[in-house]
Amino acid sequence: MKPTTPNTRPRGAAQAKRRPDYLSIVARYLVRILLVVMSIGVLYPLFWMFSSAFKTSAEIFADPWALPNTLSFENYVKAWNQGVVAYFANSVIITVISLAITLLLGAAAAYALTKLNLPFSKTVTFLILGGLMVSPTMILVPLFQLLQTVGLYNTHAGLIIVYVAYRLPFTIFLIRAYMLTLSDEVVEAARIDGANSLQIFLRVIIPLCKPVLASAGLVYVLFAWNEFPFALVFLNDTDLKTLPVGLLDFRSTLQTDWSVLFAGLGIASLPMIIAFAIGQRYFIRGLSEGMGK
Q1: Which of 234, 17, 214 is CA-nearest to residue 139?
Q2: What Gene3D superfamilies has UniProt attached to this entry (predicted)?
């Protein structure tokens, strides 16, 4: 028998596998550098806004990039006392009430479209999703006339109804996509145990949909807290205005007192920063699982 010569191919292949993939390493570092640059681009304007609130207007114009000399909260107190507290309260009232209505109606509609086997559910779904293509500027005039006709112009109730109607299609779309991932066997098991549709919705579906409800809630809060065109057109009285519109009047009232204006902007942005810091885990999970369908 001929002596068998050792086959070096497997060894060469193993050595090739052990070689570092320089292309993937470079790509990984480039992605990290890009993320760092993007983080700086997002965080530095916030840092500059909050730091400018501790300066005087003269210090801002003399050296806008310098750090404040003292950490005095006097500008925040001035901003709070000169009207921000009223605008803040209005934004909280409108955001909280409209958020609760939007999530309740959105979850109920998504449950009906996915788990109740209703006739024409697909047609209704496409009609609802058509609302995603509506631009706010296109409906300002008809909504203005409608609110005046029904007596809801220049009221918080009218603005809440507009917010709910405008954001409901997206909320239904997001929650419906998540509910499609839920097994129908869970619903059938609850129905066999004697639960009706309302009990299944409240005791089974809602607990399972906490991640997507958190995601939809954060997206909605970001919209309602920063919304400007609807609040500008549909609210006229100063006592009823929300933070974005109120800060516009706040600026004209203060004229050149930019340090107090920056303090007001900081107060307005702080709730959103806290909300996303607390709910970011549920936000990412709900979006990633919900958008998968």
Answers
A1: 234
A2: MetI-like
Q: pLDDT tens string for the chain (293 positions)?
A: 455 555 555 555 555 555 567 788 888 889 999 999 998 888 888 888 888 888 887 888 888 888 888 777 888 888 888 888 889 999 999 999 999 999 999 999 999 998 888 888 888 888 888 888 888 888 899 999 999 999 999 999 999 999 999 999 999 988 998 888 888 888 888 888 888 888 888 888 999 888 889 889 988 999 999 999 999 999 988 889 999 888 887 666 555 578 888 888 888 888 888 887 777 776 666 566 555 54
**Which residues, 6 or more positions from 4, have their beta carbon under 8 angstroms from its beta carbon?**
none
Least Cα distance to 53 among 68, 40, 65, 41 occurs for: 68
Task: Please work out, in degrees rounded to the nearest 5, the angle formed at the alpha carbon of residue 79 by the alpha carbons of 280 and 91.
Answer: 45
Torsion sign over Cα 144, 148, 154, 156: negative
Length reported for the chain: 293
Give the span between the Cα atoms of 14 and 147, in whole angstroms: 73
Residue partners of 200: CB distance under 8 A and separation at least 6: 115, 187, 190, 191
**Which pair of structure tokens corresponds to residue 55?**
């300066």
As given in the structure block, the two tokens for residue 79 are 């901003």
Sign of CA dihedral 265, 270, 276, 279: negative
In angstroms, rounded to a whole number, what is the distance separating the alpha carbons of residues 214 and 281? 9
Per-residue b/e over 232-262, b at no fewer than 16 CB within 10 Å?
Answer: ebbbeeeebbbbbbbbeebbeebeebbbbbb
